[in-house]
Design a protein that fits this description.
globular; binds flavin-adenine dinucleotide; single chain; 17 helices
């Protein structure tokens, strides 16, 4: 039988995952005019439209696909995000009524040494304050850069908050107008499959039968092709990550200061995100319905917002926690919610879509005969990545010392914690975390991410002895952090002020 050359790719779904994937693929294939990328999007099924917090790797992707930072800020109401501020994740009695910590985007230890043991000995200030200038700057609502800094560069590392609908629209315009992605607005009514090949064709409502060489399922939670048609099983992780519902509202934010971080405030059965864009705040209460009723969740959200919920359009969203056993099956790869979802904590979803799309584009199959090997390679890596992301999200729940509800107690139950995580935690009670504890680049959360969370949540590290010489060196480094902060605090604008300037002038292009 003739080996089919893979020339025509189709992406089903026009949410963040679909457009990021189509854009990266079209960029990768731009030199080869024999290849095409088509995106099919239903005119009737809206995108999920949440997903407003990102992580710094999004900057690389935007740069790669040719979206300018100024365009993102002005067209998507975007703001700069430098951290996640976790409030009330610890017990109020032991850690104070208003306990909080930051998971910063800046790499800690700008002066070289790992200061965790020193911080643990001293405990004068929070870990993040001791090891980086970023929390100091962020708490003053300062931006990570100046208007004179080139696009995608800054004094501190950063990502963005943006309006998910406007972001999808910007990705679409860019993909169609600049990257040559073919766009079809139509409903996929049926999918023809073959047990050997995988997908044979899509039946579209208006355009009839259409055939491609490779199918990328970005259809959201429905997982239309990989889940429903190819029946790839879903690995349910609700026994590890309990959150399964979210209530969301948007409230105006036109003249207020814009915190350059996501605020994540824990409550008795989950947490609340608070994301400030330039025009509005997006607020969402995440909870588990095994521990909290919808009525209580609404009351809590109303209290947080400070106004009757009737004034707003409250959306209720169901979340399915887990991922597909194989993201890539035969000639079909799922990316985005159709591949899996953990929960919104730590903004892992756009990160994983972006990561998956890059992983795919780095090693594209040329022929149908490549598919099996390539799928095996991809699935092994992405499964590992999913498991480590789940570990990292679970970490926030299982090392909390909150005891005020069964939700928090059950999160510490050993049966709900993956062995891969308990092994690490056990090790870190005996020796400080180090680079060697992380195996590969497929762990998208690395040592520094763990350090911010572990130290922020007062993990029980064992004290290490330190010489006077070491103590003096570390003390000097922490003083330098404070000195650097003093230098920068007058050189950076407030976030709102910078956004205004971007609307007026834009950033210099790279
Ligand atoms: C409560 C909540 C909060 C979140 N917060 C964050 C966050 O802060 N950060 C983050 O990174 N992620 C977050 N996420 C995840 C984020 O929303 C998604 O990763 C992101 O929106 C991508 O979704 P998607 O493109 O996979 O699916 P969707 O946006 O749902 O898009 C699905 C697409 O498939 C199309 N489609 C479906 N069926 C058909 C059909 N039959 N024919 C043709 N087209 C079809 C639809 O029209 C649509 O275009 C959150 C998710 C939830 C549930």
């Amino acid at each position: 039988m003739k080996d089919i050359e893979i020339k025509n790719y189709v992406v089903v779904g026009g949410g963040t995952a679909g457009w990021i994937t189509a854009s990266l693929l079209a960029t990768k294939l731009s030199h080869d005019k024999t290849k095409s990328v088509t995106l099919i999007e239903s005119p009737d099924i809206p995108i999920i439209g949440v997903g407003e917090g990102t992580v710094p790797s999004i900057r690389q992707t935007l740069k790669r696909i040719g979206i300018s930072e100024s365009e993102l800020i002005t067209k998507c109401d975007a703001t700069f995000k430098q951290s996640i501020k976790f409030a009330n994740w610890m017990d109020k009695e032991t850690h104070g009524e208003k306990n909080f910590y930051h998971h910063l985007f800046d790499y800690p230890f700008p002066f070289g040494d790992n200061l965790l043991p020193f911080w643990h000995k001293k405990k004068g200030s929070s870990f993040a304050e001791m090891v980086s200038i970023q929390q100091h700057l962020a708490e003053l609502n300062l931006a990570p850069k100046n208007i004179t800094d080139a696009e995608f560069t800054g004094i501190s590392d950063y990502a963005y908050h943006f309006d998910a609908h406007k972001f999808a629209q910007l990705l679409k315009e860019n993909a169609v107008e600049k990257l040559g992605v073919n766009y079809i607005s139509d409903n996929v009514e049926d999918v023809t499959i073959d047990s050997e090949i995988g997908i044979l064709a899509l039946k579209l409502q208006k355009n009839g039968m259409t055939k491609y060489d490779f199918y990328i399922d970005c259809s959201g939670f429905t997982s239309l092709i990989l889940g429903q048609k190819l029946a790839v099983p879903f690995i349910d992780k609700s026994n590890v990550i309990f959150s399964n519902k979210a209530l969301t509202v948007q409230i105006p934010n036109l003249d207020k200061e814009i915190p350059p971080f996501t605020i994540s405030t824990a409550h008795q059965a989950g947490w609340i995100w608070d994301i400030a864009l330039s025009t509005r705040r997006g607020i969402g209460l995440v909870y588990c319905d095994r521990y909290m009723s919808e009525d209580t969740a609404r009351e809590k959200l109303e209290k947080y917002v400070g106004n009757p919920l009737e004034e707003f359009n409250v959306r209720k969203i169901d979340m399915k926690i887990g991922y597909r056993e194989q993201a890539w099956n035969k000639n079909c790869l799922a990316i985005g919610l159709s591949q899996g979802f953990v929960e919104p904590l730590e903004a892992t979803a756009i990160l994983l879509s972006d990561f998956s799309a890059n992983l795919f584009c780095n090693k594209l199959p040329e022929h149908a005969s490549d598919l099996e090997d390539f799928a095996k390679h991809f699935n092994k890596r992405i499964t590992y990545t999913w498991e480590r992301v789940i570990d990292f999200v679970k970490l926030h729940y299982c090392i909390s010392n909150r005891t005020d509800s069964q939700f928090w107690l059950d999160n510490r139950d050993m049966s709900s914690i993956p062995t891969s995580l308990t092994e690490k935690l056990s090790l870190w009670m005996k020796s400080y975390p180090s680079k060697d504890d992380f195996f590969s680049k497929f762990e998208v959360f690395d040592l520094e991410n763990y350090l911010y969370v572990l130290a922020g949540m007062d993990f029980s590290f064992k004290d290490l002895k330190m010489s006077d010489h070491e103590l003096a060196r570390y003390e000097n480094q922490t003083n330098q952090v404070l000195k650097t902060f003093e230098e920068y605090k007058n050189r950076l604008p407030k976030q709102r002020e910078l956004i205004k300037k971007v609307f007026e002038n834009g950033f210099p292009k790279i």
